Amino acid sequence: MIQVDIPATVRTVFGKGESRRLRMDQKTPAVVYSKGEDVVALQVDEGTLYKNLLHIHGRNAVVTLDIDGDAKGKRHVLVQEIQKDPVVERVLHVDFLEIELDKPIDFVVPLRLTGVARGVDLGGLLRVSRSEINLRGCPMDVPDEIVTDITELDREDKGISCGDLEIPANIEMLDDPATVCVSVI
To answer: Which CATH superfamily groups domain 105-184?
Structure first.
């Protein structure tokens, strides 16, 4: 799992006008939602936030917010939602969801296929039925992607199913093991 550290400050001003002023000062408003606790309003440096969000875009990543002015100080979060300006490539607002690193969470992990299937070399077509796998585990134990080699896949094979994928021992597969991910037709 990717880890990113982002410095932030507790935000004390609210409203549309104040948010615009923050953005003019190169700050992005954000909030942290936490189960059973009050929402924490933040402001984050626009350049730092944008650079880090580009790095983790489309991937599962644990963000450690180092919050100046917060009683907890550091919070481990996942990016829940990013609001962007549709005209200008600018982040308007980010919602974070606080997590505990020692409690299992559900993740959608991409499946990366390597190699060229033998059946494709013989004239078959590669049929990818699943490009993502659903896993449950502690955030730091979940892999960025599941890599599987398809070079031995032939047309006579049943294909590679979810049960055939190699996942870490402390991670639980949520998909049906019989579900075919890739095959040659």
So the answer is: Ribosomal protein L25, C-terminal domain (2.170.120.20)
